[in-house]
Specification:
The protein is α+β, with helices and mostly antiparallel strands. It has helices at residues 47-54, 79-87, 104-114, 120-133; strands at residues 7-18, 21-32, 62-67, 70-71. The protein has two domains: 7-76, P-loop containing nucleotide triphosphate hydrolases (Rossmann fold, 3-Layer(aba) Sandwich), CATH 3.40.50; 104-133, no CATH class. A hairpin with a 2-residue loop joins strand 1 (7-18) and strand 2 (21-32).
């Protein structure tokens, strides 16, 4: 039986620079399945850059990213492949903007409905489940 690996995402020696500024200096990182991980550190320490690299909104200069044990060949990915990769991972930006004319639920289901093509009824159910987990169902 072929089971999923216990590590969901992993980086090996991930590096990213902006000009002369070395932001990621060889980051080795693993997140195991069913774990919650928090990245903490001072402003400017590279947390957002690291997350943007994982989601390939920013491309690392070097190093490896593995998703469920498989290498992510970010150096050769086409736009459609990048989009597929990004659907596997969520990210909340530091300065996110909700649609002010929509409810919390409508904001939560916007991505699944518009980007992934999830039927609205199914997305509402999943959205309510997620909101319930964090105490926002009302």
């Amino acid at each position: 039986m072929n089971q999923r690996p216990t590590v969901e995402i992993e980086t090996r020696n991930l590096k990213k620079t902006f000009g002369e500024l070395e932001v990621l200096k060889g980051v080795d990182f693993k997140v195991r399945r069913h774990r919650v991980v928090a990245l903490v550190g001072p402003s400017g320490s590279g947390k957002s850059t690291f997350l943007r690299c994982l989601n390939l909104l920013e491309f690392p200069d070097s190093g490896d990213i593995l998703w469920q044990g498989e290498p992510v060949d970010y150096r050769r990915m086409r736009p459609a492949e990048l989009s597929r990769h990004r659907t596997k991972m969520g990210m909340v930006f530091q300065h996110f903007n909700l649609f002010p004319h929509r409810s919390v639920l409508e904001n939560v289901i916007e991505g699944p409905v518009q980007v992934l093509g999830t039927p609205a009824r199914k997305a509402r159910g999943e959205g309510m489940e997620l909101l319930s987990r964090v105490g926002l169902e009302e």
